[in-house]
Design a protein that fits this description.
single chain, 281 residues, Multidrug-efflux Transporter Regulator, Chain: A, Domain 2, Multidrug-efflux Transporter 1 Regulator Bmrr, Chain A, three-stranded antiparallel beta sheet, 9 helices, 40% helix
């Protein structure tokens, strides 16, 4: 049965009319009414509830605030209080959250482009060596050799950095002192997180005593393969070390490595790592 119209006004809506007008369910309207966001008038003669233009505007405003990330309870609070001393800080906090989301989305898009490029030519570039220019970077070292450093302060920093994945990425570091040995067998490395300095500043990461500044400039770069569950060996980085010796490059820094692609072959995982080693002219 159709609900009756109030003949005294053309700007009053039954709950069915209101739901059709705004494109929402009657259940949602009742929920917003329960929250105090909209308040229909009750016709004392027939008991029907009628919404007005004010209700439509308050409903639409609350929906926009909800889309910005506020909870429905916060929306009701914002719309209810004449003077809300917490409102400016709530809005500022929400704006900062959205700016953070935009930054993370931009970093994710950049990372996905690199993944796309890596999967396009990863197999062909194995064993090749080239020079690539990197910007200055920050690094948070999290291990001594392969053993994690236990520190509450370091754990807090790690969580802060990880909140910005994939703008931050896991990177192993082989120190230059070890590379100069040009040895055989197992090679030692350190585990940590790295990001570009420009991104670190934009992300608001802190430059603490645990954060190492990695210089920008020319890096000897290559792709190496890691298979099996065994430790890293000199063979894994032989393309770079052979190049250093062949070209008689004696002035170089640390070597860094991170995964760029992976595949499964005959039940074995094969990881492709990008290596980059600082060289000086």
């Amino acid at each position: 049965m159709n609900e009756p119209q109030d003949a005294n006004s053309t700007e009053k809506y039954t709950i069915s009319e209101m739901s059709r007008l705004l494109g929402v369910t009657t259940h949602m309207l009742r929920h917003y009414e329960k929250m105090g966001i909209i308040r229909p008038e009750v016709n004392q003669e027939n008991g029907y509830r009628y919404y007005c233009v004010v209700d439509t505007r308050r409903f639409n405003l609350s929906r926009s605030l909800l889309a910005c990330g506020f909870s429905l309870e916060q929306c009701a609070q914002i719309l209810e209080e004449k003077e809300n001393s917490e409102l400016p800080s709530l809005i500022r906090q929400k704006m900062e959250e959205k700016e953070r989301e935009i930054l993370k989305a931009r970093l994710a898009i950049r990372y996905l482009k690199k993944v796309e490029e890596a999967y396009a030519d990863w197999t062909e570039r194995v064993g090749q060596v080239w020079v690539e220019t990197f910007p200055p970077m920050w690094r948070l070292n999290l291990s001594r050799k392969e053993h994690a450093v236990v520190s509450k302060d370091l754990e807090e920093q790690r969580e802060a950095w990880l909140s910005f994945l994939p703008g931050v990425f896991w990177v192993s570091r082989i120190r230059k002192e070890e590379i100069r040995i040009f040895g055989h067998g197992i090679i030692g490395y350190e585990y940590g997180l790295m990001c570009y300095e420009k991104d670190a500043l934009e992300m608001g990461l802190k430059k603490t005593r645990d954060v190492e500044m990695i210089p920008g400039g020319d890096y000897l770069t290559g792709i190496h393969i890691k298979t099996g569950r065994g430790p890293y060996t000199w063979e894994n980085i032989s393309a770079l070390t052979d190049y250093l010796q062949r070209e008689k490059i004696s002035s170089f820094g640390d070597c860094f490595s991170y995964i760029v692609a992976s595949r499964n072959e005959n039940g074995k995982h094969i990881n492709y790592h990008k290596m980059f080693l600082k060289i000086y002219s």
